[in-house]
Amino acid sequence: MNAMVKAEGVHKSYGAVQVLKGIDLEVAPREVFCLIGPSGSGKSTFLRCINHLEKVNAGRLYVDGELVGYRQKGDRLYELKDSEVARNRRDIGMVFQRFNLFPHMTALANVMEAPIQVKGETKAVARERAMKLLDRVGLADKAGNYPSQLSGGQQQRVAIARALAMEPKLMLFDEPTSALDPELVGDVLDVMRGLAEDGMTMIVVTHEMGFAREVGDSVVFMDQGVVVESGNPRDVLTNPQHDRTKAFLSKVL
Amino acid sequence: MTASLKKSGPADTPPPGPEPEAIKAIPVRHYGRWVAAVVVLALLGLLVNAFATAKINYHAIPDFMFDSNVLTGLGKTVLISVLAMALGLVLGVVLAVMRLSKNPVTSAVSWVYIWFFRGTPVYVQLLLWFNLALIFPYINLGPIYRDEMSDFMTPFMAALLGLGLNEAAYMSEIVRSGIQSVDEGQTEAAHALGMSQGRTLRRIVLPQAMRVIVPPTGNEFINMLKTSSLAAAACQYLELLRSTSDIGQSTGATVEMLFLAATWYLILTSIFSIGQFYLERHYARGSLRSLPLTPWQKIKANLTSFSNRQSGGVRA
Ligand SMILES: Nc1ncnc2c1ncn2[C@@H]1O[C@H](COP(=O)(O)OP(=O)(O)OP(=O)(O)O)[C@@H](O)[C@H]1O
Ligand SMILES: [Mg+2]
């Protein structure tokens, strides 16, 4: 089967600072793929390259077999137009550490916005799906609340519903629970667990080792822009082979 | 407010005990405040007395308040202010977007525009527009429009262009700061959902920028109402101040008519301040946990809390 995400020698630098130094990895469809690593190792940057919020400097990234951000003709690469990039992003949901809900819209309007604006759905259709999704994340009764009237955990669940409303084939999570109070983390992880059970392909940057172990199909440990170690969560998390992995895990576990 | 707080209290809070005895203490005496108040009131009295005994024919003010010439001038002031402001707003958004764009040419053009129109007096700009026929006798926009400049550049057009284009320079800076005040995560989230640049700007960024844009824009509009009086001297546009001072000259009630003009300007700015309050309230949606009360709601809240006095305090 084709990989859902395939990275080949992905490099990214900001000016002289090399953040990603050749990332190779593959994410299979329906896989829950956890990315762990110390702060500054380039996890967020890699995630943002996948939906072309950042341009890679070298290497190739494929989502569902299609090159991200470029079109290849012969041995030449052509940059995609903004509209084409936007079109490809429809199929990739993203959830941010800081939620980034639209504060001037209610929870329901947040979830309805993209299907109406991007896909041209009618309000009625969008509203029906949005209500279903809010119900799924346990927030049907908060549909009329503005983000400022929701707790962090509730905001993050609305953000997940908002991403799901575009019916993506891939979901990217960038530390979805690290801005949350400990007692709110569980609700968000439950929603993500449910998504995993339904067969969503997910790449999850996380510090929740419990989640990685229970829900993850594979774990990749990144440090200083390279993949240090990867494999089955049980192996990587309980029996790490590299010193850097051991040092990191001893700090977070 | 107090009532709803009580209702929504968690079920396991202990029942309210007997009201604690209120503190009865002798308040600090602020003698300085008393002195200051007396001094200020005395000065105010002198001022009122001076105006009351001055040679002013106060009857002239209500007599001419609704004079048809005054009302025409008033209408023209409102018309030119609203239209020039609209022009300034639309052009200001365009200039702000140009200024923030990655294209160095559009960004530079916007910069130069702002540099010129903010850097020269609006009075000079009004005079320039009005006298444009001296350097361009004809206006020729190809197949769209052609005419003699003196026919095209009426006092109204000169005032509109002079005030509106000047305003655009100020508005673009206001809009730019508004756009820049919106968190980058918002644009990112919109892009990640597949929204285009334009839609992101229109649906996500600008509505949030409005919170920052509206208050200074209200100031700009109030300024515009007053600045429009320059259009009379610069380009013969017969607005409020001109129509009242014309009456003043023909009747000899010069100062009275200036008072009349001032009264009308105060009425206009007061009305638009109220409008601004509601506009700001509208764009505060979502950013505040609860919207500020409208004056009407405040009155109602005060009345109900007054009648509920004994059942809890009034929260300041
Ligand atoms: N726009 C940028 N310009 C310059 N440097 C950047 C930029 N974005 C990220 N970096 C740098 O790239 C490195 C990797 O950042 P990244 O956010 O990917 O790390 P991370 O692994 O997600 O860390 P964390 O766990 O703290 O979120 C950091 O050293 C950061 O300073
Ligand atoms: Mg990060």
UniProtKB/TrEMBL annotation, chain A:
One term of GO molecular function: ATPase-coupled polar amino acid-transporter activity
SMART domains: AAA
Domain of life: Bacteria
UniProt record similarity statement: Belongs to the ABC transporter superfamily.
Membrane is among the record's keywords: no
Catalytic activity: a polar amino acid(out) + ATP + H2O = a polar amino acid(in) + ADP + phosphate + H(+)
Protein's recorded name: ABC-type polar-amino-acid transporter
This protein's UniProt keywords: ATP-binding, Nucleotide-binding, Transport
Signal peptide residues on this chain, from the entry's feature table: none
EC number: 7.4.2.1
Domain ABC transporter: 5-249
UniProtKB/TrEMBL annotation, chain B:
Membrane protein topology class: Multi-pass membrane protein
Any one cellular-component term (Gene Ontology): ATP-binding cassette (ABC) transporter complex
Biological process terms in GO annotation: amino acid transport
InterPro entries, sorted: AA_ABC_Transporter_Permease, AA_ABC_transptr_permease_3TM, MetI-like, MetI-like_sf
Localization terms from the record: Cell membrane
Domain of life: Bacteria
Transmembrane intervals: 34-58, 78-100, 112-139, 258-279
Gene Ontology terms for molecular function: transmembrane transporter activity
Keyword Transmembrane belongs to the record: yes
Pfam families registered for this protein in UniProt: BPD_transp_1
Keyword set, alphabetical order: Amino-acid transport, Cell membrane, Membrane, Transmembrane, Transmembrane helix, Transport
ABC transmembrane type-1 domain segment(s): 74-276
Assembly behavior: The HisPMQJ complex is composed of two ATP-binding proteins (HisP), two transmembrane proteins (HisM and HisQ) and a solute-binding protein (HisJ). The HisPMQ-ArgT complex is composed of two ATP-binding proteins (HisP), two transmembrane proteins (HisM and HisQ) and a solute-binding protein (ArgT).
Family statement drawn from the similarity comment of this UniProt entry: Belongs to the binding-protein-dependent transport system permease family.
Alphabetical list of NCBIfam families matching this protein: HEQRo_perm_3TM (TIGR01726)
The protein, known as: Histidine/lysine/arginine/ornithine transport system permease protein HisM
Taxonomic lineage: Bacteria, Bacillati, Actinomycetota, Actinomycetes, Kitasatosporales
